[in-house]
Amino acid sequence: MHTVGRLSCNIGGSACRALPRRLHPAGPQALGALAALGLLGAGCVPAHRHPSWTTFELQRQQPHDGLAVVSQPDGYGLHIWLDTDTRESGVCQPRWSVDAARLFNGNGTAPFSSGLASREEFFAAVARQDVRRALQQQSAALCRQREPRRSFRWLEPPRNADQVREEAFPMLEEPELLSDPGAIEEQETQLLNRENPAQTSGSASRQ
Fold first, then answer.
1. Mind listing the pLDDT tens digit for each residue in 172-206?
2. Rounded distance, CA 8 to CA 17, Å?
3. Could you tell me if 117 and 102 are in contact, meaning their C-beta atoms sit under 8 angstroms apart?
4. Which strands make up the sheet holding 151-152, listed edge to edge?
5. What is the rounded distance in angstroms from the CA atom of residue 106 to the CA atom of residue 146?
6. At a CB cut-off of 8 Å and minimum separation 6, what does 78 contact?
7. How many CB atoms lie within 10 A of CB 100?
8. Which of 26, 36, 168, 181 could, after both became Cys, cross-link 30 (CB 3.0–4.6 A)?
9. In angstroms, rounded to a whole number, what is the distance separating the alpha carbons of residues 32 and 20?
């Protein structure tokens, strides 16, 4: 740790912090030593220019279904969406999506997400033990909330592209959500014909 003016800096360009008391002016020998270490000029980088790697719950639709990870400077990062996999009887485990949202204002009072972050950022984040620990805690809480009678089983998130399994979510495969427009029109026509039989027969006789 070295001092420059009223800043305290680590070697290697890590964050600077203000010192609590005034320092005596550095002498020529001290300035020469600092210059040799590369601490003058741009050697000190403000703390907000480094990722804090803070993690906290950031709800999407219900508690525990999202985790914010401040993985970039100035509060940018990832909003990892959490879901549950209950296809195995009696078990609830995480269902991973590597397409995380872009986190904004992660160091502020009103963080939010929009758009998508790259998968490489997701892989870099889940490579950290503290991020995986936070994901495990939120996933367990989400399973307890959604499926309290099932036992929770931790499933590690994908760490690279080769481990990603593209899965179709069941909710997107429900036939009632993908109704055929032609079938709907035919049903409406049949209902109209039943409600107005006289008008239908009159139209047929004129033809």
1. 444 545 556 667 777 778 888 877 766 555 555 55
2. 5
3. yes
4. 83-85, 91-95, 151-152
5. 27
6. 68, 69, 71, 100, 101, 102, 103, 117, 121, 122, 125
7. 25
8. 26
9. 24
Low-confidence ranges of the chain (pLDDT < 70): 1-48, 167-182, 197-207
Half-sphere exposure of 194 (CA within 13 A, CB side): 6
Residues in the chain: 207
Categorise residue 120: left if φ over 0, alpha if ψ from -120 to 50, beta otherwise: alpha
Amino acid identity, residue 105?
A: N
Residue 152 phi, psi (nearest 5): -85, 135
Residue that the structure tokens 């907000």 belong to = 48
Give the integer Cα–Cα distance in Å for 98 and 82. 10
User: What pTM was estimated for this model as a whole?
Assistant: 0.60
> What pLDDT score does 179 carry?
59
Which bin fits 38, alpha (ψ -120 to 50), beta or left (φ > 0)?
left
Q: Half-sphere exposure (CA, 13 Å, Cβ side) for 173? A: 4
Who contacts 22 (Cβ-Cβ below 8 Å, separation ≥6)? 6
